[in-house]
Amino acid sequence: MPVDTAPSRWRCTPDAVRVRDYGDELVVHHEPSVTTHLLEGATGALWATLRELGHAVDLPALWARCFEGEPDDNDLTALRETLERLQRVGLVQAEPR
Predict the structure, then answer these.
(1) Cα-based distances in Å from 37 to 11, 54, 66, 91
(2) SS3 string of 47-91?
């Protein structure tokens, strides 16, 4: 069964953040919750891409910006799970289509 990518698009939260870039890792401080997060590797790249875009994108579009090749269902599931983890700590938000 294909992954349902229709329910939402993703974007960085508009909340104030401070970012330190250490090459392959980002340290992101989310001011509203007063929490700091270490985003390594692909997670950091995904978050940085969303921040750079400045608007909401769907999973396939985000995949295309960050990775090569066509994603399969497992790729999109992993991408959505990563975004859901970032959403739980306030760094991204899902928007209805």
Answers:
(1) 17, 20, 20, 9
(2) HHHHHHHCCCECHHHHHHHHCCCCCCHHHHHHHHHHHHHHHHCCC
Q: Could you report the average pLDDT of every consecutive run of 10 residues in the chain (97 residues)?
A: 61 86 92 93 93 93 92 93 94 88
Which residues contact residue 45 at a Cβ distance below 8 angstroms, ignoring those fewer than 6 apart?
66
pTM for this prediction: 0.86
Give the 3-state secondary structure of residue 46. Answer: helix
- Compute and round to an integer the Cα radius of gyration of the chain: 13
